[in-house]
Amino acid sequence: MLDLLPSRHGAVLVCGHRGHIVDGHENTRPALDLAAAHGASMCEIDLRMTADRRLVVFHDDILDDASTGTGLISHLPYAEVARSRTRSRHGLPIEGQPIALFEDILAHCRTLGLGMIVEVKDRFADTAYLEQVAASIRAADMAGAVLISSFDYVTLREMKAIAPELRSMGINYHRLADPAGAARSAAMDVMNTDYPQFAPDIARALHEAGVAVSHYLPRPDHFARRRAYGDDYHARLATILQGGLVDMIVCDDVAWATGFVRDCGLTVARADLATGAAHV
């Protein structure tokens, strides 16, 4: 089972946000391949459900902005969604990729030795959707290497009731007054706080409650301009990592993130999915 608290022994999980996507298309096999090649511990992907209840890996609820297709995914049969190809949001001249089925991406990550963060995007009146997600993960024998994530903490609590063996991550944009209380309310195992709301006191409170700490970072060029004006967040982040306050970094640029962790004198944590044992 993937160790979610590697900060205890000088290691950090590096997660590719939708894969390694600074050089390619998000939520695709090539993005996952690049993440693995650059040394990622795991990758985050996004789930949508088609009109005929097939789980596909795609971020948006509509096809229009990041694919060659159009329309709401939840209103389209999988056969129609499958005719679309991915399209770069940033204008990269890269060949489009198929919109993949969740079951195929699970199998691919297992082959690559990547853990997964699975963000459930859709919301339904019943829990059949979450039950299907859990069943797919079990069928792939990936329960020990997957985190279910959401901005909706009620969804996380429902998933824990359906599949208590699956671990979860709450996504948080805020500096919470009681981060541990929020984590307990959803029975989450990890809490992610996005830049710039992350603060050491959040991390300490979560660790004291036995909850792992994740930190999402924008791309390195976001910080490069600010560094030129005298604001070096990466220097502060190095101190935070070396102090054992962060268990996972989530970033679009895996190559940068793994290099940064090593430059801090720490190890990138990995998972042996064949045995379920964590190693660094």
TrEMBL record:
Residues 12-280 form the GP-PDE domain. GO terms for molecular function: phosphoric diester hydrolase activity. The lineage of its organism: Bacteria, Pseudomonadati, Pseudomonadota, Alphaproteobacteria, Rhodobacterales. SUPFAM superfamilies: PLC-like phosphodiesterases. Transmembrane segments: none annotated. GO terms for biological process: lipid metabolic process. This is Glycerophosphodiester phosphodiesterase family protein. It holds the Pfam family GDPD.
